[in-house]
Amino acid sequence: MTETNFQSTDKVESDYPIAPITFNHIKLDDQFWLPRLKVQRNETIPFALKKTRPAVDNLRLTGAFLRGEDAPKPFSHRFVSSDLYKVMEGAAYSLALDRDDELEAEMDQLIQIIGQAQKDDGYLYVAHICGIPHPSEMGETPYSWVVHSHELYNMGHMYEGAVAYFEATGKEEWLKIAEKSAQHINKVFFEGDVSYNDGTPVNQAPGHQEIELALCRLYRVTGNRLYLEMARKFLEIRGRTYRPEGEDVMSPTYAQQHKPVKEQSQAVGHAVRAAYMYAGMADVTALSADQTYVKALDRIWQNIVNTRMHITGGLGAIHGIEGFGPEYQLPNEEAYNETCAAIANVFFNHRMTLLHRDAKYFDVAEVALFNNSLAGVNLNGNRFFYVNPLESDGIKTFNHGRMGRSPWFDCACCPSNIARVVNHVGEYMYAVSEAEVFMLLYASSQVQIPINGNQVEFKQITDYPYHGKVTVEISVSESQSFTLNMRIPTWAQGNQFLPGNLYTFNDRQRSNWQVKVNGEFVYSDLEKGFISIQRKWESGDLLELELDMQVRFNTCSEKVQANNGRSAVTRGPLVYCAEGIDNGGPVQRFSLLPATEKSEIQVKNFTGGPLRGIPKIRMDSVQEDNDQTRELTLIPYHAWNNRGNHSMIVWIRDN
Questions:
Q1: Domain boundary at 215, 242, 269, which?
Q2: Does a structural domain hold residue 257?
Q3: How large a percentage of the chain has pLDDT more than 70?
Q4: Residue 235 belongs to some domain of the structure
Q5: Which of 111, 228, 281, 297 could cysteine-pair with 174, CB 3.0–4.6 Å?
């Protein structure tokens, strides 16, 4: 690898054509992400660690069981351990940004408990170790019901946490636990172990994908190619060695087991499982320098953006299977859009950006991050959404048994996922390749990037995503030639909010963005969504990007019946919604003025309350119960339900 690759080590033989700058090299000082990082550190991580204490107790009791102590047995659960591992991963990212002795000591204690719950041969799964499985969920014996047991899913999240903690602290204890587990799984699944499955290799892919991603991370940090080969094998055997036959969660499409992965062309089944798998396919492609999966990934991506993704970046519209329905089935009030699925959409599209050096993929990642993902947690960091509809009457229950946000869930994958994704958001900001720098996600920040042996410092100043001006100050120790590629998002190019055929701006306009270097305009055609500026850079060079963040109205494909005769409002990368608290009651009673009668649109920040500093949009609308013109206020979708349970709508009726 080149010296500019901050993510991989020299232990890996191949990697993505462009490499992300890891989050711990980014110093954030903006007013959008930095407050969220502080909330994560001070509220979300401590809160989530408390909420996952039952999982800790389970592991502690498992250790006592293995030691032969007279203690109660733990409770039986398939995946509660994974929630703990994800929160610990988030805590590791927090430590990488800001070392905290107390948090680190707590993590070390938790790691010790995890190690004591692991069998000598590497197996780690509470219910089977302690002899308390629910056979219908976990099988009678270890690895006998891989399609739903989550045994490998739990280990995947454990590996990711272990890698993150090693990278944050340099401590190897958890990493050794993870490697012990991975080597055990390799033996049982691909070689044969007399203690499992009568010595016959299990040779079955997990029902819930995750371990594929994790094994790639384990390979990156250790250089042990066994883990990369394991990830590839789990992908290769999916849809080959085991194919469920049934309906709903036992349908062959539910866990993408209907075809070998390289033959798949549509996004089907459980959305989180699917997007984790697509991200894993991209990782294996990059790390093995094998293009086997690329055509399948391209087909699947096209299917998602053309037929199966909400305007918020949400995936998996259908309840029950938490997944993809038929093409163009994108309901609003009934939409599922699990928070984890949006986060997985970010993972997948970030990797596709690195794989193809194409900004259109990051345009999807950005929208999924700013809208569906961030909507999953309130501004105080301690109330969460599992389900993310695009409309609510403020009365009916939609979110796993309750209206509005919840402090936690019995299935707590979403809060624990939020606990990790926000803390490493810096990793989405820059990527590098030889003498090229790619600016992906804009935020006030500082970073030093080595280019051709010299340190180049980039200092961004911006109020993105609320405002479209980005200023970049460049400092170099000596004149340095390199190419700087700045992403010009799809929404800034004129005709549509997102790539694909689903969403189009009502008002067709020319793209309206501009770039200056030292006050002089730069003119260049976009190539794969980037404007490329190649020059010899000097200290003090000033780069200015201006993205037009006017309010835009969006029409959905007529094939999506739920949105016929409706429009959605966006501004920059943000989807806006109307909420009842700002509009005197149910927002379903409003419709938009005809295009020929659009009133002046105002954008002003909230000056107080929970949404202070967040831009709101005001425009005239028609109140349909009396056909009167009335002002309508809209807020960013990610900020809704921070002031109580009220009606909300994204797709507003056209008059």
A1: 242
A2: no
A3: 96
A4: yes
A5: 111
Q: Check if the beta carbon of residue 367 is closer than 8 Å to that of residue 621.
A: no
User: E strands within 178-285?
Assistant: 269-270
Q: Are 539 and 612 contained in the same domain?
A: no
Return all residues near 239 (Cβ < 8 A) that are at least 6 apart: 205, 252, 256, 257, 258, 259, 260, 261, 263, 264
Q: How far apart are the C-alpha atoms of 520 and 407, rounded to whole Å?
A: 51
Per this entry, what is the length of the chain?
Answer: 655
322 is catalytic: yes
> What Rg value do the Cα atoms of the chain yield, rounded?
25
Task: Tell me: do 117 and 206 sit in the same domain.
Answer: yes
E strand or H helix at 126: helix 126-129
User: Which stretch of 155-164, 195-204, 413-422, 547-556 has the lowest confidence by average pLDDT?
Assistant: 413-422
Span between the terminal Cα atoms of the chain, in Å: 57
User: Can you read off the two tokens belonging to residue 272?
Assistant: 């989180």
| Backbone phi and psi for residue 263, each to the nearest 5 degrees, phi listed first | -100, -5
DSSP conformation letters of 544-555: EEEE---EEEEE
Strands 480-487, 436-439: pairing is: parallel
Q: Give the pLDDT confidence score for residue 424 in this predicted structure.
A: 86
The rounded distance, in Å, linking the Cα atoms of 250 and 600 is: 53
**C-alpha span between 66 and 403 (Å, rounded):** 42
> How far is residue 541 from each of residues 129, 149, 440, 487, 538, measured CA to CA in Å?
62, 56, 20, 19, 6
340, 413, 414, 577: which one is catalytic? 413
**Is residue 41 situated within a structural domain?**
no
Is residue 545 classed as helix, strand or coil in its secondary structure?
strand
**Domain count of the fold of the chain:** 3
Task: Look at residue 570 and tell me if it is in a domain.
Answer: yes
DSSP state of 350: H
Is there a single domain that holds both residue 82 and residue 129? yes
Same domain, 570 and 452: no
540's tokens? 């003090």
Last residue of a domain, one of 210, 242, 274: 242
The rounded distance, in Å, linking the Cα atoms of 385 and 192 is: 42
Backbone phi and psi for residue 179, each to the nearest 5 degrees, phi listed first? -65, -40
Range of the domain at 452: 430-487+513-547
Q: Please give the single-letter amino acid code of residue 371.
A: N
- The answer, yes or no, to whether residue 31 has pLDDT greater than 50, is yes
And the tokens for 559? 């094939």
Give the pLDDT band (50/70/90) at residue 477: confident
In the set 167, 322, 338, 436, the catalytic residue is 322
63 and 140 housed in the same domain: yes
Same domain, 440 and 577: no
C-alpha to C-alpha distance for 307 and 167, rounded to whole angstroms: 39
C-beta separation of 25 from 6 below 8 A: yes
Identify the CA nearest to 346 among candidates 420, 413, 287, 412.
420
What phi and psi values does residue 339 have, to the nearest 5 degrees? -55, -40
Whether 151 and 229 map to the same domain: the answer is yes
